[in-house]
Every structure is written in structure tokens, then in C-alpha cells.
Write a structure and sequence with these properties.
Distance between the termini of chain A: 48 Å
Number of domains of chain B: 1
Largest sheet of chain A: none
Largest interface: A-B, 30 and 45 residues
Low-confidence stretches of chain A: none
Structural class of chain A: mainly alpha
Radius of gyration of chain B: 22 Å
Order of helices and strands of chain B: HHHHHEEH
Number of strands of chain A: 0
Order of helices and strands of chain A: HH
Structural class of chain B: mainly alpha
Strand content of chain A: under 5%
Helix content of chain B: 40-55%
Low-confidence stretches of chain B: 1-30
Shape of chain B: elongated
Oligomer: heterodimer
Chain lengths: ~80, ~190
Amino acid sequence: MTVLSWVPFMQPLPGVQATWLWLLPILIFGIAMMYKAVRVVDLATYWREVGTMTAQVLLAFLGLATGVFILVQWIVPLIPAG
Amino acid sequence: MPIQNTAVLLPWNRMSTTPTTAVNRTPASNKGGSVPFKWTAFVLGLVLPGLGHMSIGEKGRGCRILAGFLILWFSGLLIGGLGSVRSWDPPYTNPAAGGKRNLWFIAQAAAGPIAFGFAALDASLIRGAEDDQLIEITMHDQSVGTAYRFTSIGHAADFGTLFCALAGLINFAVALDAGGRATSDRRGGGR
């Protein structure tokens, strides 16, 4: 199935199985929109707060991924087997 | 601690941090944070995301809540198809084996009638597809089952379900906020 033959809602989005990381910013942006709509004191700063929260969560994901990568790829192989 | 003060620590009294009396029920005393829970706003928030806040005068906040909800909900449906909101027969189960309740739908149901509407659409269009749209598949328990030929699996099914479940869960928290929010607390609302 290609994008051109895709029927939205009736069929799943093509290509998601291979490339799914780009879904994370959308997910976090939606969560930030709902969360900040409740939490923000002054709605004039709403979009800035949403952008900040989205960036913070994405950076946290990136930091966690980097930490796990270092742990699995570099530190764990240093542990003597047995 | 005197026994009458322990009542305010019970979970069902968390919305009100001080005992409600005829004296402290006035708007002026609500500045301290004691607000009677507004069940109407809570229920309206469950009926339509953001409607609870709109009903207490926070229209700007309600519109933003609704926009965030719609982004999450329809992104989930675009990613995983209608099968993302499914009350029965979750992915990887064989309906012929007796059917199974989809536990993700509990979270999605907090989106209110929208969730039940889309679950009904899934039941009629995807799960109830015509025979020529069904393919034979081998289930994880090695039994033979059938599925709609475009049923989402893998990351598409996972992310689609997750998007809609998070939209429902957050909406429940938002509806609770609408019920517990002081009407006089403008906090920039309505802009």
C-alpha cells in the first residue's frame, strides 16, 4: 500500500512500521496542548508554554535514549562475562 | 488531631481542603482554594472535551483543550485507522475464539460519546467488514482467524491506540479540573 492509494481512517497510515519516531513530536505536542490549557495561568503565554514543554519532553527522550545507548553499547560490554 | 479534622484528609474530600459551612461557602472565602466540586462541569467535560471549562466561563481554555484533544484523537485515527478505537477484539486476538474486551478502550472511553461513536463505526466498518474484505491469518496462538485486510498491526496499531487512549485519559483529568476549578478564578480564561 502506498500513500497515494491510502484511504484515511479505513486503512492504517503506510510506512509507520519502518519510521515511527516522527510520531513522538505530534504525540507530545497534543499532550502539551491539553496539559497547558489547564495549567497555564495567563493564556497569552499559552503557545510559548506548549512549545517549551514539547521541546523539554523531546530533549528528555533524547537524553534518556543517549544514556541507554551509552549503557548498552559501551558500559555493558565492559562488564566481564561470568 | 481532633477526629472532626480527619474528614478533610479523606480522598473524596480532596476537592475541598476545608470543611464546607454556610460561612465559608461565600465567593470571597473561595480565594483560599475551597471550592465545592461542580459535577455539572465535570460531566460536561466528559461529554465533550473542553465543554466543562466553557460551562464555567473559561471559553478560551475550553477551546484550547478541545483543539489539543482533536489533534491527539484524529492523529490516532489517521495512524491506526478506525481500529484504533475498539471496544472488543483488540489486535492480535481471534474473534472466532470468543471475543475479548479491549482494555485500552477503558482509557479511550473517557473521551465520552466520541469514543463510543467511533467504536461503533469500527464495529460496523472494520470488524463487521464484508467477507470479500477479510483475509485468513494465523494468530499468535497458531489458530486460524480472519481479519479485515487493512486491520492495523505493529507500530500503526500501537501508536493509533496510544494516541486515542492518552486523549481519553487526559480528558478525564481535564474534566476533574473543570469540576474543581473556582468559577471566580479567571487566570486569563476567556481570552
